[in-house]
Amino acid sequence: MGISNLMLLLCFIAIGIGIPSFHADAAAEGGRWQSNYRKVIDVEGGPESVVWIVQLSDLHFSVHHPDRALDFKRIVGPTLSFINPSLVLITGDLTDGKSKDLLTMKQNEEEWLEYQNVMEDVIKKSRLDKSIFFDLRGNHDNFGVPVIGGSFDFFSKYSINAQLGRNKNINSVTLQTGEKKHLFVGFDSTMAVGLRGPTNLFGHPTDELLAELDKELSQWDSQSTEPVTKISFGHFPLSFSSQSNSGKSLGDIFLQNSLSAYICGHLHTRFGKNLKRHHQLTHHFLSKFFQFNVHQDSYDSILNCSTDTKEFWEWEMGDWRKSRAMRILAIDRGHVSYVDIDFKLGGKKTIIVPTFPLDSRFMSTSSTHRNYRCQKINFLSYETVRALVFSASPIVSVVARIYDSSPGVLSLIFEASMKLVENSSRGDLYVAPWNYKAFEDPSPDRFWLQIEATDIMRRSSLTDLRPFSINSLNAKLSWTWREFLVMGCQWAALYYPLLWSTLYFMLTILLIPKAVLIFSKKQFTYLNFVADKGFINCIGWLLQELCKVPIVWFGILIYLFYLITFPWFIGRVFTDGKDKGYMTYMGWVVKSIDQKGKHEYIGSPDIMVTVLSHIFYVVLPSLLVTIALAAEKSIYREYFLSLSGKKVDDYDQEQSTSLVNDQGSEKSRSYIGKRYIRKVLLVVILTICWKHFMNCKALLKAYEMNPLIHFPGYSFTIPLLLAYAFYKTRKV
């Protein structure tokens, strides 16, 4: 994902310039929208009731980190050989596309050659058919690619999809076992015009892509008598996917097509291990911007068996880059489950995937809960505990254990040997009969499942303990604040509200006190505040002090209007470095590949990593610290005048001298006299300037710019204003 520039997450929190428009969505229509790839695979062999696939993501093969590709070659091929999946999905960021200092982000053909060679080796060692491998673009695979199919679009040359002629934006595969169908639909939502990073961070599904995706997901709706399990896979989480021009989103398409799960990558495990999200159809206004926990809503207390719940799970899987992660996803009689495997310590000899009962934290759904209560499910699928066991060595025993947590400690209440299902030619499915009704409970996390497998070498492998709920209640799980910021916030929807509210706040700070000074007799001073320590007096005094440093006040005001109305900088946005574009708060404006027009305002909301970082970490703190400098000068001035015995304005000698006593203890007066507050503010100024310098350094490296030529206003205005403010407030 390259999220290091994401201002450690707020800050991917947080719009102009009128030129005739050539929108990025229009560019997508030219070369990317043809008929999509569609295939049906008859899965042969047993167990017939289960299919499983492997997902890998965010490989980030890099010329600067050869260990990523070496570990992939060493571990993945042999592991796939004994897992024997029906599909292998690689969901983006195949290569890194970054310089050694991480600041320049564009395509590197050497990394793509390495990816091609490693994948050929993995396919050979796995003994799997190459046609079951599907790879997707991630944002790193699109850094600096001006046009799909062009000379710098190495994905279209070296990827598995490209080698097999799967060069469309959407690929769908149906795994068919008997009468059951399992539909997998992958899509590429990267920018049609790929900018260099860091302003290439979001998925950009167009209206055309969403229409095609809807068509692929509904392809079996009128043809299959059995329910179809639908899985979609892509690179970007929905929190990092923008809406189309018409306001539609990927979530809208998934909900209306009864998707079971959307699996993706992009975020990496650095933000947390609970990057999972349960989506339900809701009309709450805030749902456009936030979801505060893994589960969106509680189940309705009133049971309605006649209505269907529109919902789906979103499961981000982590990364190979640092976490060496692999996911096995299984569909067992309609029940979708997964296990994420960590290969940081090397390969695994045995891997266990429990397929039933499901983990109540990440896999339970309200529709299954409703169907269970309404007796609308096939209870035959509830009569056994089931698990897939993959091993490089023969397995001699598999044991299922269930623990009861209600006493306050885990108490073993069920233990049974699991038997291998006959006709397990594709993989080993183990089952153990049980009385599932004995485990019905209003608590979704009372009972915990663990499965142990022992191979012929007496090596034992244990699954993690996982809670389950037979009646499909979900165990509530809260995100950490970092997990919430990357999964629970819809950044595309939040960008403009955060940006404009902050700009309006700063303009209010500047303009209202100035208007009061000009048009009102009411004056707010430090002496007023000392006499009447009210909130209004405090705020009025602080804000009016800045107005008394006119060059700084006008400088900040002009700078804010500059940020709103003019380009911030001019830089090279493509890999070849030939063509330049300019960036505003609304996006980049660059020439089209044929030089006949312009792509206007592409890279929005991706530019928020630059825009909001500058606003929140540089501009706003600079405004606040200049206010503090002016206020500190005012305090020191009154302190100095009171000691010297001079009168100030309409205050007599007695009032001025009494100020010394009002300013507190001897220690407090010492702080004022030695101007310690000013020294602290100097440290704050230096910190702001350091942050601004690091931002400028990153930008000039990313887009090959000269600060004197390509972004002088952005580079020098704030440091100069801070320096002048500090100089101007040095004396009484």
Walk me through what this model shows.
It is a single chain. A hairpin with a 2-residue loop joins β23 (580-584) and β24. The longest helix is centred in the C-terminal third of the chain and has 37 residues, at 608-644. α10 (491-519) runs parallel beside α14, α14 (608-644) packs across α15 and α17 (676-702) runs antiparallel to α18. The two termini are 51 Å apart. The chain is of the alpha+beta class. It has 18 helices and 25 strands. The strands form 5 sheets. A 7-stranded mixed β-sheet has the order 1-5-6-7-8-10-9, with helices on one face. It has a 5-stranded mixed β-sheet with strand order 4-3-2-11-12, with no helix packed on it. Strands 15, 16, 19, 20 and 21 form a 5-stranded antiparallel β-sheet that branches. Residues 3-34 and 647-660 have low confidence and may be disordered. It holds the Pfam family TMEM62_C.
User: What percent of residues are in strands?
Assistant: 15-25%
Gap between N and C termini: 51 Å
Helix content: 25-40%
| Biggest sheet overview | 7 strands, mixed
Give the overall silhouette.
globular
- Strand order of the main beta sheet, please? 1-5-6-7-8-10-9
Average pLDDT value? 88
Number of strands: 25
- So how many helices? 18
Class by SSE composition: alpha+beta
Domain Calcineurin-like phosphoesterase: 53-269
Organism: Ziziphus jujuba var. spinosa
Keywords: Membrane, Signal, Transmembrane, Transmembrane helix
InterPro entries: Calcineurin-like_PHP, Ig_TMM62, Metallo-depent_PP-like, TMEM62_C
